[in-house]
Amino acid sequence: MGDAKAKQVVQFIKEHREYFPVIRDVGCLVHSDFKPVNLLWSEESGLTVLDWEFAHSGAGIMDFGILLRHFQDFPISLSHLEKGYCENGGNLPPDWLQCARITDFINIVQLLNSSSDRPKLFQSLIQNLDSTMERWGKLSEVLSCSL
Known about the structure:
Mean pLDDT: 87
Low-confidence stretches: none
Strand content: 5-15%
Largest sheet: 2 strands, antiparallel
Order of helices and strands: HEEEEHHHHH
Structural class: mainly alpha
Number of helices: 6
Radius of gyration: 16 Å
Distance between the termini: 30 Å
Shape: globular
Strand order of the largest sheet: 1-4
């Protein structure tokens, strides 16, 4: 990533720390790899979520962040996502989109801290960090434009 980018990332995290989810007494089941390739849809069964190897108790907003990381390849309607989640018992804060993105931002930083034997993945993750930092003030517009 380099020193300049690392400093930019740290500064961004500090500036937006109020969006970090806080888990006090309530955690929920988090898939932690909730991306389109791990979702299977059929008319008979509805949605099936696959690949639970990273599941844990945590902040559910993490799954939204991971899902939205892939918005360019797998467009999704934010209003339908929010409506469907809330209609099925979920509860989202008003700033859920920022909370989801900052949570995934940290996930990406942690992924970049692992072995760099997948240069295309690392480049994609760094581009995602850059995109989030550059477009932070208009996340809902950016994510909605992908539809």
